[in-house]
Automatic annotation (TrEMBL):
TM stretches of this protein: 21-40, 52-69, 89-111, 139-160
InterPro entries per UniProt: DctQ, TRAP_DctQ
Top-level lineage group: Bacteria
Family: Belongs to the TRAP transporter small permease family.
Cellular component aspect of the GO annotation: plasma membrane
Molecular-function annotations in GO: transmembrane transporter activity
Keywords: Cell inner membrane, Cell membrane, Membrane, Transmembrane, Transmembrane helix, Transport
Main location: membrane
Mode of membrane association: Multi-pass membrane protein
Name the record gives this protein: TRAP transporter small permease protein
Length: 165
């Protein structure tokens, strides 16, 4: 069980190590857009949309890693002052009854839109934009899978009596 959890952790760590460069690239592209527009009077919808694509990719694919390192939003009304055993039960219940069903529902309800987008190779959001909305929509199921896998890894550690990585 713990070996599987380690593999899942490794996947999300590897993805995060690549995605951290997306943040820098996004800042540089946005800076280029501002300089291009206000200094040189040049504008490109394609370049502007690239910031949206980078942002979406960064946040959708890094969500599993965020869960791994426990930097996600936590509503800790009871959790902060609870005993470790109570925290374990709260974590297990949250993963089993809230997070995993939410990821399953999001995957289920988004899949037709993603499938249809791929069928027609859905084009740009704006005229002159990036002709790959189908790739942007594909981030939704990948997000669901990465977060669900990380949730399973955390559950495996909780069941084994180990603290999540």
């Amino acid at each position: 069980m713990l070996a599987l959890a380690g593999i899942i952790d490794g996947i999300n760590r590897a993805i995060a190590s690549v995605l951290r460069w997306f943040a820098l690239l996004m800042v540089l592209v946005q800076f280029g857009i501002v300089v291009g527009r206000y200094v040189f009077g040049v504008n490109s919808i394609w370049v502007q949309e690239s910031v949206l694509y980078l942002h979406a990719t960064l946040f959708m694919l890094a969500a599993g890693y965020t869960l791994l390192v426990d930097k996600h939003v936590r509503v800790d009304i009871f959790y902060a002052k609870a005993a470790p055993a109570t925290r374990r039960w709260i974590d297990m219940a949250g993963h089993l009854f809230l997070l995993l069903p939410s990821m399953a529902a999001l995957l289920w309800w988004s899949w037709p839109s993603v499938r249809n987008s791929w069928k027609i190779l859905e084009g740009p959001i704006s005229v002159g934009g990036i002709e790959a909305v189908f790739l942007l929509k594909s981030l939704i199921p990948v997000f669901c899978v990465l977060v669900a896998l990380q949730s399973i890894a955390i559950l495996l550690r909780l069941v084994a009596g180990e603290e999540p990585a």
